[in-house]
Write a structure and sequence with these properties.
Largest sheet: none
CATH class: Mainly Alpha
Order of helices and strands: HHHHHHHHHHHHHHHHHHHH
Radius of gyration: 21 Å
Number of domains: 1
Shape: globular
Distance between the termini: 42 Å
Helix content: over 70%
């Protein structure tokens, strides 16, 4: 009988072998785990393992470590320089896509304007955790395009949380019992307060320059799990992981930050991240793709078209035309809160099973199409660093 350890051993071996193969078509090796997960979604003889709490916890840690790494990579000075653009772009893209999505749901599925708008907001959410390996692999995290993707994805997380609060007000007291609005707001306040505290007390971080890397790694893990614990109160653990990375980067001496980042990357990509992508793939429901194919295509086309058009309109003066399109493509991938929002509306009978299934199915399409398309266009349009282009040829 296969146990969790034997399953992980098999999964790591297959990821290693398949990863080497897909790198030849300019796709980061980590997405081999996503493909393996997709095969398990079709037929999963290990469903007892992949649905266990132990496996899900490891997968969620993979997502949090990926976002923690993003926090290390964020250049606050660069982000501040383009903060007006990022705020404007986030609001414009979200509202633009919500407008077109709302019109689609209103006139095709015949829901009220308010419900149509709430559902369409799930179109606009960004699964930035899935983008991290691509940005990292192609060396574009610290470019203007990379920082724009990260900045918009971060601000989008905050927008998602307030959308969750709006949904909680709509569905009533039974939902508030599970997700206290006061706890959410308090948690958000504490997260941003902690981030500011770490920034303001940067001078005390100089003392860490003389500590061993093992000790510093323990401190880094303390910061990560402290933020995660507080963020969990607001269903904002992904945002908390990202803020933990930002806080640690501003607090620690620069030379030590680089060492810690390398240690965290080794832990993340060597263990947790493949489990996360396997989990994402295995959690897909391929039945949705076969049940409503034409409606799914319609939702994908409207959602994708609105995202690309909005990104091109708002970013064409800040980025090149091709980079503006790449921005729209990257921001199309969905995960986490987008599914939570539509699931709550479905559980409380505010949307029917057909609309719920179609929204979930469109998310499945984006999870597969966006990483491959984005990776290949980065190379083809000369945006990726030359090192990877040479390696993949």
């Amino acid at each position: 009988m296969v146990n969790l350890f034997l399953f992980l051993a098999l999964m790591f071996l297959l990821t290693f072998l398949l990863g080497r193969a897909i790198e030849k078509i300019r796709v980061p090796w980590i997405f081999a785990a996503l493909l393996i997960g997709a095969f398990l979604a079709i037929h999963n003889p290990f469903s007892e393992i992949t649905s266990s709490q132990a496996f899900i916890l490891l997968a969620q840690l993979g997502m949090y470590f990926l976002l923690f790494i993003i926090g290390f990579e964020i250049d606050l000075k660069e982000l501040k320089t383009h903060s007006k653009f990022i705020v404007k772009a986030t609001l414009f893209i979200i509202l633009f896509e919500a407008l077109f999505g709302g019109l689609l749901i209103r006139f095709v599925f015949h829901y009220s304007w308010f419900i149509s708008f709430l559902v369409s907001l799930s179109f606009a959410t960004v699964g930035e955790a899935i983008l991290v390996p691509i940005l990292d692999e192609f060396g574009i995290i610290n470019t203007k395009l990379g920082q724009s993707i990260i900045g918009i994805g971060t601000l989008d997380d905050i927008f998602e949380i307030f959308t969750l609060i709006l949904v909680s007000l709509l569905v009533g007291s039974s939902f508030k019992t599970q997700f206290s609005i006061h706890a959410i707001l308090f948690s958000l306040f504490m997260l941003f307060l902690l981030t500011v505290v770490f920034t303001k007390f940067k001078k005390y971080g100089k003392k860490f320059a003389f500590f061993s890397i093992e000790t510093l790694l323990l401190f880094a893990l303390f910061v990560l799990f402290l933020f995660l614990g507080i963020g969990n109160l607001a269903e904002a653990s992904p945002l908390a992981a990202l803020l933990a990375g930002i806080s640690l980067k501003t607090f620690m001496p620069k030379q030590r930050v680089e060492l810690i980042k390398n240690e965290v990357k080794a832990i993340c990509y060597g263990f947790f991240a493949p489990i996360f992508f396997l989990w994402v793939g295995a959690s897909l429901d391929m039945h949705y793709l076969l049940t409503f194919p034409l409606l799914i295509i319609l939702v994908v086309v409207v959602s994708k078209g609105a995202k690309l058009l909005a990104s091109f309109i708002v970013a064409r003066r800040e980025l090149t035309p091709r980079q503006s399109l790449l921005l729209g493509i990257s921001l199309s991938v969905r995960f986490s809160t987008s599914i939570i929002i539509i699931k709550i509306l479905y559980d409380y009978g505010l949307v029917a099973s057909d609309l719920y299934s179609i929204i979930v199915a469109s998310s499945i399409v984006f999870k597969f199409v966006v990483p491959v398309l984005f990776s290949n266009l980065l190379v083809r349009w000369g945006v990726a660093k030359a090192k990877f282009v040479k390696k993949s040829k």
